[in-house]
Design goal:
The protein is of the alpha+beta class. Helix content is 27%, strand content 32%. Strands 5, 6, 7, 8, 9, 10 and 11 form a seven-stranded mixed beta sheet that branches. Strands 1, 2, 3 and 4 form a four-stranded antiparallel beta sheet that branches. The longest helix has 17 residues, at 32-48.
Length: 229
Amino acid sequence: MMMNREYLTFAQKHPQLFVNPPGIIFTILLDEDKIQQAEAEMTRRLAAHNLPTEWAKVGIVYQDQYLLLLRDAVSFPDGSLGTYIRFVNPDGAPGVIILPVCQGRVVLLRHFRHATRTWHLEVPRGFGEQGSSSEANARRELAEEIGATGAGVRLVFLGEVYSDTGMSAASNKLYYAEIETYHEAELHEAIAELHVVPIAEFERLIRDNEITDGLTLSAYAYAKARGLF
């Protein structure tokens, strides 16, 4: 784990991730004395429950090319001090989620997900690339995952969604896509096949809990609310 100096340097470089808006909030503490007080309080609480006291350490807990995990010192709404952990995206590029429809049929992916160790029916999605617009990222994902490209793709921006506000600061841009053609997906993405269904069947899959991916459900909710279904 990196020490506080690296954490504070990161905070200086990414002030948008450490904003304290007005109101009753979890206030992030960047004063070093306050950080030490918060660490001392969390150390006491952890020790009282026979838990590892290193879990009290404020800093960059973990980082790789996909995610960055922070443990912040915070002042809770009641004024007590402690720590709070969160995932952040330091690049700030939102992911993209695209609900593709071809001639009245929804194009889903049957996708194996490592995190859940099971198969899911999902719409295409992916990480945003820094320096590219969200629309460009959405078009790239459609091309890579279902082979929909060029003038045969019409995108409608639906909105923005956060997949887990309790843990992650990452956001996703939602799109509805009218596409003219598609083809089978790439196997290296652990996508077994495309599952192309009429809208009524897509809604039945949701109703019967056969679609459980939250981002797919978000895309459907936005599209439905905008009258696209």
